[in-house]
Amino acid sequence: MNSTLPSDMRNTAAGGTAGEAGSAEEILLSVKDIRKYYPVTSSSLFPGRRKQVHAVDGVSFDIRRGETLGLVGESGCGKSTVGRQVVGIEQPTSGEILFEGKPLSGMKDREMRRIRTRLQMIFQDPYAALNPRKRVYDILADPMLYHHVAARSDIDARVGQLLDEVGLPKNAKDRYPHEFSGGQRQRITIARALSLEPQIIVCDEPVSALDNSIQAQILNLLKELQEDRGLTYLFIAHGLGAVHYVSRRVAVMYLGVIVEVADSEDVFRRPLHPYSRMLISAVPVPDPSIRDRKVLVPQGEVPSAIDIPQGCRFHDRCPFATDRCRSEVPVLSSYTDSAGKTHEVACFNVAAAAADAATASVAEGKEH
Ligand SMILES: Nc1ncnc2c1ncn2[C@@H]1O[C@H](COP(=O)(O)OP(=O)(O)O)[C@@H](O)[C@H]1O
Ligand SMILES: [Mg+2]
User: Fold this and answer.
1) Which residue has the higher pLDDT, 111 or 66?
2) Dihedral, CA of residue 78, residue 84, residue 88 and residue 92, to nearest 10
3) How many domains does the chain have?
């Protein structure tokens, strides 16, 4: 049974995941229709014509306390830009971000400083994120002193606890970032984020720059910390592999907008948006139920975020595109997959795409 959300709920990835009992109080962070446009300098060909990069173009989602929302999509689709708005490093061009129900934009400086400690971000490149001239002790101690989260007399003990919590030896405090491996450096950036007692951590591709063998260790550490501290994560990645492992729900982004949201397992096993299927086709997975699914290879290249295609942004790469897709913009609406699970999908051709995926698996079944 396919049902469609009422129009006032459309275009949001809010709450509403099937089977989850949620109430408004449990929502820790609400992102409401945020847009972020960056001006680009006018070219010599068209002097005077102001162009803009539409990095994020109307994104909405809620994150409940203690959950992980995965945000996934190809490089350049606007994931980091969303992350920066969420933690308040940048202000959105329009739209609103609510933390514990309060809009970040309306906060006074003092309150904003306090809230900023609650919203932390860790980055892909742990070396660039750490000041090479500071010892680990100072990297961890300085933010705590600056934000008054610990008394000076408690700092030594706090640094020791943080190092222990992220699996680094006590003597790490006397060393400099360059003395550590990539995985250890990421542990330092995690400890620094934790030092301010955050409630939400935006993890921006935190394992993408690490060796495969180290990636699982860092993902496990993030999971353990989440359980111990009740943390809430926005977990950003360009592929579905790591996201699937850590996230309960996943939002798939394409060129500044969200095109599908559902429980992580359901997106991974039964993606409904053709773009989600393409992303999953690119994941090397040993699970036969996924490996045998019909692969959908993307056509063409990602369009520029300066010249956004009319209609559905994905239409010129989509094998199911119709005339409607070239002129009308699809909004997120609810669809039920073959296992009865609800997905929010922005696509006019969900049924045709799903039929194509189903035909493929039946055809493959006959061959055996
Ligand atoms: N400060 C900026 N000025 C101009 N363009 C930017 C800026 N930051 C990001 N962009 C552009 O916005 C788009 C989204 O970037 P980003 O959020 O970094 O994507 P992702 O994290 O998904 O790779 C890209 O086209 C990028 O070039
Ligand atoms: Mg990024």
Assistant:
1) 66
2) -20
3) 1
